[in-house]
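The instructor's notes for this session suggest beginning with a concrete chain rather than abstract definitions. Hand out the sequence below and ask the class to guess, before any prediction is shown, which regions might be ordered.
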Amino acid sequence: AVVSTQSPITAGGWRWAGEWFINPNLSLSYDLDSGLSSFQDDVFENQLRVPGSDWPTSKLFWTDVTGEEAQSKEDIMCPAGWEWTDIWTVDLNRAVDEEGYEYCLDQSVGGFVPVEKTYHLCRRRRWVRTRKRNPDLRQQAAHQRMVRAAEEGWEYSRLFTTKFHLKQRTMDMVRRRRWHRKMVADNPDADAIFIIDPTSDVHETKEEKEGSRKDSTGAEKPFLPKVQAPRMFITFKEPHTYRLRLCVDT
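After discussion, reveal the predicted structure:
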């Protein structure tokens, strides 16, 4: 359901404190390389063929380790605050053949093996490249990333059902951003609940609301339960990064 910023209604004992404001999810600003001084990027080169044919050399597509579409290795740029230490190379330190390929019947199912069979219709190989932090640019890059996130607040993804990320990619089709509004309690014993009704709009007249509960034939629409909110957040003035250290005795 689509819910506008006008839909939430405060419960008794509560009042709004200020207007709606964009409050991006700062956790998206931290990537897999957060807290590391050296990091290895990877991307998978994929090939498909029809039964009885050879592997094509021109029709390539690229994915990440989970199978999601990704940029080609030529289009992957070194992030701000980092610098490349080598070039893209095929990862042979895996269960692959001499060219770095692993094979399977259907990529969506998986089950890659290092030995090619005639019935295999998909193969892939992993390309890797290492980068290291440039201490002179680290703080500057972190500051720019936070400023960009705070200014616009958009998160991008291929679909609303897939994982969102902060930096826009060429294959992204949707975007979203999070809005917050602060409430304060006039009554300390007030329940922290208000109602978001996804079936109506506060700007609808009584007649429009009655009509919206019926379909084109005049029959009553199925009941949709109301959503109870809000979600509770702890807001910090600035983000913090923590590193967990674990010692294992054997």
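Then share the key points. The radius of gyration is 25 Å. The mean pLDDT is 77.
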